[in-house]
């Protein structure tokens, strides 16, 4: 099954058919292709599955997850002022690869050349902080705590909520 990550504009809609509830996501692929050094108009262009694989390798996740992340940042008003989709991609690339500054600037600049280090640091850290502010929204705080006494020591075990039936 081939992965498809092509979309000019994705729309997320609620169950109701009100136009007020629709949300237009930005197209992440043009800035992603710059970072991936992929020109969509090349004659020997690779398949969508290959492009999806390269996207995951560089950003550490699928396009759908990036779109959901952007939506959550918007929904909770956590976007850094003036932030663009490419800046979120810069942060995801940084968190995936953790490159030195010069390498990171060159990588996210793609074929256009390296970006300014000050600009790179500004947007990478702004989006890392914004994403970290989502922790309480996306990480389940529910866990069962089971205490076990072993060899006269009290040991704390955290168990996933799925295994806590009946507690």
Instruction: Please give the alpha-carbon distance between the first and last residues.
Output: 41 Å
Q: Helicity, in percent?
A: 40-55%
Q: In which order are the strands of the major sheet placed?
A: 1-2
- Count, helices: 7
The overall pLDDT, averaged over residues, is: 78
Instruction: Assess the beta-strand content as a share of residues.
Output: 5-15%
Summarize it.
The protein has 167 residues and is mainly α. The protein has helices at residues 29-36, 48-59, 63-75, 85-97, 101-109, 117-132, 135-138, and strands spanning 11-12, 23-24, 144-150, 153-159. The strands form 2 sheets. It has a two-stranded antiparallel ribbon with strand order 1-2.
Structure description:
This protein is mostly helical and 167 residues long. The protein has one domain (11-140). It has seven helices and four strands, in the order ββαααααααββ. The strands form two sheets. A two-stranded antiparallel sheet has the order 1-2. The protein has a two-stranded antiparallel sheet with strand order 3-4. A hairpin with a 2-residue loop joins strand 3 (144-150) and strand 4. Helix 4 packs across helix 6. The longest helix is centred in the C-terminal third of the chain and has 16 residues, at 117-132.
């Amino acid at each position: 099954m081939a992965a498809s990550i092509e979309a000019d504009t994705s729309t997320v809609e609620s169950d109701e058919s009100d136009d007020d509830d629709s949300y237009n996501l930005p197209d992440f692929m043009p800035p992603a292709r710059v970072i991936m050094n992929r020109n969509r108009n090349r004659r020997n262009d690779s398949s969508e599955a290959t492009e999806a694989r390269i996207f995951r390798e560089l950003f550490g996740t699928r396009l759908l997850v990036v779109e959901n992340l952007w939506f959550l940042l918007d929904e909770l008003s956590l976007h850094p002022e003036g932030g663009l989709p490419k800046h979120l991609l810069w942060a995801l690339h940084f968190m995936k690869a953790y490159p030195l500054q010069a390498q990171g600037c060159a990588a996210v600049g793609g074929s256009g050349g390296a970006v300014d280090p000050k600009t790179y640091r500004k947007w990478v850290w702004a989006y890392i902080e914004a994403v970290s502010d989502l922790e309480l929204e996306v990480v389940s705080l529910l866990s069962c705590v089971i205490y076990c006494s072993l060899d006269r020591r009290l040991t704390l075990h955290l168990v996933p909520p799925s295994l806590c039936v009946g507690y």
